[in-house]
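Tokens as discussed.
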């Protein structure tokens, strides 16, 4: 039996619904405005218009802070369902696009984006000049299922079933330092001697220490005088002679004045995965970029 919908009773529009949903998720009008690329007054008017159309108060306002009212809490799951439906529509529509033009976003680490992508992007630009490519240089794992990027280059295999992942190569990480730094500390010949050196940590040194100690080192938190979440910053610190750090073989080959801190240590295997969404992979422009990246980076 077909249910007849009284469309005239639905007065609010998607922009109002999205304004409420993102404000509730972000926790403030200012954060939601940044996420949506709107001004705060515009976003506030959309939320107010939705409240007027529904005849309920969705947020309790106290100064600059917002909290959901009971009505807002009860309606939030319904608006989340709307947001998920809108996301699926956008994904499906993007996947059906057969034009080799338009926007494609690629997320990769700072080092990958800086040292390895430019040559590939030149090939893509020459092959498909109608494609507009955005590079998101970040070590944060972007959620491809939520359209935070179209293609990701990662060092870990994704677990989401909606994602397509291709292992494009296996590389390795080793411990490197500048020649000047190794000369300064007397060029360690054993893991114990290297354990006396200064190390440069990647983001959270506590996570790195067990892996490095499994190679035979005896490091503690006190070894890490410097750390950064940026691979390009770590590279610069190593070149400056400020300590020892893990670098991939490819990055080390592009870094002048450095060498292996202790060649006898075993390399650390590092996979390189190319990832996209299953539906987006049917888009000709995304498939073209995906395939050219896979070929060039393999």
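Sequence:
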């Amino acid at each position: 039996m077909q249910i007849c919908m009284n469309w005239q009773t639905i007065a609010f529009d998607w922009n109002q619904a999205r304004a409420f949903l993102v404000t509730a998720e972000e926790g403030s009008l200012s954060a939601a405005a940044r996420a949506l690329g709107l001004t705060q007054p515009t976003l506030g008017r959309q939320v107010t218009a939705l409240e007027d159309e529904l005849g309920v108060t969705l947020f309790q306002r106290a100064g600059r802070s917002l909290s959901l009212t009971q009505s807002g809490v009860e309606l939030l799951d319904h608006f989340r369902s709307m947001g998920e439906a809108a996301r699926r529509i956008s994904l499906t529509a993007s996947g059906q696009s057969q034009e080799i033009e338009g926007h494609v976003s690629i997320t990769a680490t700072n080092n990958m984006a800086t040292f390895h992508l430019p040559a590939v992007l030149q090939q893509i630009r020459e092959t498909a000049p109608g494609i507009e490519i955005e590079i998101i240089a970040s070590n944060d794992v972007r959620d491809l299922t939520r359209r935070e990027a179209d293609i990701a280059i990662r060092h870990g295999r994704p677990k989401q079933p909606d994602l397509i992942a291709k292992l494009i190569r296996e590389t390795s990480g080793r411990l490197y330092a500048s020649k000047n730094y190794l000369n300064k500390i007397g060029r360690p010949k054993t893991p114990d001697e290297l354990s006396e050196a200064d190390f440069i940590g990647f983001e959270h040194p506590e996570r790195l220490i067990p892996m490095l100690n499994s190679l035979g080192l005896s490091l503690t938190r006190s070894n890490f005088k410097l750390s950064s979440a940026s691979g390009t910053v770590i590279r610069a610190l190593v070149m400056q002679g400020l300590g020892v750090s893990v670098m991939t073989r490819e990055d080390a080959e592009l870094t002048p004045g450095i060498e292996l801190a202790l060649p006898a240590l075993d390399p650390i295997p590092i996979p390189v995965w190319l990832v996209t969404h299953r539906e987006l992979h049917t888009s000709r422009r995304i498939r073209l970029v995906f395939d050219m990246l896979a070929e060039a980076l393999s």
